[in-house]
Every structure is written in structure tokens, then in C-alpha cells.
Specification:
By secondary structure, this protein is mainly α. About 75% of the residues lie in helices and about 0% in strands. The protein contains 15 helices and no strands. The longest helix has 28 residues.
Amino acid sequence: MIAMLTNPAAIIGALMPTFVDAFVARGLDVGTAATLGSIELFSMAITVVLAPLIVNRWNRRAIALCAILLAAIGQLGSMETADPFAIGILRMAAGVGEGALYAVAVASIAAMAAPDRTFGLAVACNLVTTTALLALIVWYARSAPAAGAMLVTGAFVAIHMAFLLALPKHGALPASRQNAPSHRDGPTASPVAVLSGLLGMFLLFFGFGLVWPMASQIAAYRGLDADMIATALSVAGFGGIAGAGVATVLGLRFGRVLPLVSGTLAMALGLWLIGTNFFVAAALLVMFSWAFNLPYYLGLMASLDLTGRIAVLTSGMIPFGAAAGQVMAGLIKDGHGFAAVTFCGSAALVAALAAILHTATSRTGAPLPAKGQAR
């Protein structure tokens, strides 16, 4: 049940094209629409980074309840208005609520005796939910193009109040972990390697944020059929489910370097293909490689510091990168056109690969476990 509470924040990046489309349907230009979407991601990122200051001090159920209400108000309140300032405030409120709920859920999962399994369940829930919501929003937006995305998302956020009782009121390590030796849980990599890894995660989602929120607008500009675009967004989530499944099956049997290289280059190709006639295949490839890459990027960064602090910072890079990319997308599109947007998105992925490979090849400390050996 706690794993379900990660959904409202985890789905926003993948749903962002539907929000951009809704803003454009109200008469806003694409650049402004992308910027308004980035406000939600920025506020979510800042909240996730700052949330550790309160999640262990305040009642977690109370925090989660307020977070769900704030996120639902932000989503539903921005359904009809076309005023950019009002939309910006409401999207900021939604991002704060989603970020706070995510932080409480992740903090509670991390304190479990076996958090890995629950994190895996959370990722699976996120992907299945994203697939279902994309299909539902695309279908509903045909009759309500300016409000469908916000109505569906706001209602979805609100139903998470049913899972609040699964949260502990206050954080505490389980008995099996209370006596774990903390002096051996420090960082196992140099600060340069850590910063390089954080940069890699930031650039991965910077490239994603540059292209994916504008995906349907790019396809429409190229004259692709509206039904084809809607179909691509509807089925793209299945690519994500497949990507996560492949990453789970492969694990570390080929190490991390080969999956990092193949997955990141595949995502770079998918972002570039968004601007071609292979839009449906491109959407599937982007979502597949996004879900495939995430476990390997997070797994590498988590291995650098067993206290989990680096993993938290790495998670914060996801919405920060996506939001920064979304801001730049409008500027690049206005100055150089959609082709430059897809090119810059692919280039950001290549830079992300260079950064994360520096971390993967320069980390120090205990070696990775052998095949079949538990960490």
C-alpha cells in the first residue's frame, strides 16, 4: 500500500505531454505551456530535497494527507483557467504536494526491513499506472482537450487518501536494522565521482524533459495524423513496462557498464526519432529505455553510499533535470525550431552517458558482488 503513494509524483514526467497539450488547447503557445509544466517539476524537486527536514519530525500521515489535498487542488484548480500566472501558482502547489507525498512514502519504504522489494513494487506500480492514465487521458481529452489531463490526474491523486493508514505515524528503523554498524556505511567513491554521477542523472532527465513534453506537438508540426499521435501516447507506457521488466531480468549479470551504454544510447536515438515519421516506434523506445536506464543509474549511485544520502540527492536530480529541460525546450524551439529540440535532447543523453561512465569506472571501495551474490 505504501508503494502506491509514490505514484502521484512518479507519473508526472511521463504525463507531461498531455498537460502541455491541454495548455496549448487553451490558446497558450508551446513555449509557455512547456514552461508552466516545468514549474510543477521544479517545485516537486525542491520539496523532495527539503522534505527530510520534516518527515522524521512530523506525523507522516498528516503530512501525506495535506500533500494529497494540495496536489489535488493544484491539478483540479488548473483545469479551466487560461491565465499563465494562475496556472503557474496552481502547478507549483501540485508539485509541492506530489513531492511531499513522494518523500514521505520513500522515507517509509527505506525504513523497512527489506526495502528493495518494496521499491521494485513501487516502480512496477508507477509504470502500470502511467500506462493506464496515458490511455485514459488521451481518450478523455478528445472530448475535453483543455481539461482532460488535469481532471483525470487530480481525481487519481485524490483516491490515494485510501492508502494513508498504511503509513507509520512516525519514522523508525526496524529492529533488524537498528544495530547496523554505521561506521562502515560511508561513501565509497570520491566527491568527483559522486558529482559526475549526479550530473549524469541530471542530464539524462534534462534530455528527456527537452523532448518528451513536446512530443505530440513535434509530431503535429510534422503533419502526422492526430489519431496516430494519440495511439503512440496511449501505448508508450507498455514500452516502459517492458523496459523495467528487461532490467529486472538482466540485473547485474552483464555488469552495469554495458546496460548503461546500450540503454542511454537507445534513449538518445528515441529522442531524435521523435522528430521523424517513426513517431510511434520512437515513443515506445523512449519509454522503454527510460524505464530500463533508471534502475542502473540509481543502482550505481546507491552503491556509492550505503547511508542512502546520495540516493536521495540522485532522486532529486530527476525532476530537476526534467524541469530544466522543459524550460530550455521552449527557448530552443522559439530560436531554432523543433529539429534543434530533438538534436539537443539526444546530445544531452550522450553527455549523460559520459558523466555516468566516469562514475562507474572511477568508483572506489568494495567491488560489485559476483553473479548470484547478494549485496
